[in-house]
Amino acid sequence: MENCIFCQIIEGKIPSNKVYEDEYVLAFHDIQPVAPTHVLVIPKRHITSLMELAPEDHVIAGKIFSSIQTIARELGLAEKGFRVVNNIGKDGGQTVYHIHFHLIGGRTLTWPPG
């Protein structure tokens, strides 16, 4: 998707501060962090939202969650805990229509976020 900012990051057209990359997934630091650690985890294939995941996307979904585990361990979040957030649609707060997961940690998180 040529107008998708995350697709442009995947293609290297827009720089990012990468923390993880494999065949299926790219993860990078959010440019507007809400906590000391705030990483965006995205599939390399454009999928608009969680509601657009198809049964054949089970490998990608598994790779996303496996990479979140790896990143959390590497960034020292696994022992104390962290939050994973996925916003879906306008009312859910989704602003970039390429499925992505926010990996947030590095401090005690409150609910609701803020």
Automatic annotation (TrEMBL):
Pfam families: HIT. It comes from the Bacteria. Residues 5-114 form the HIT domain. A motif (Histidine triad motif) lies at residues 98-102. This is Histidine triad nucleotide-binding protein. It comes from Laceyella putida.
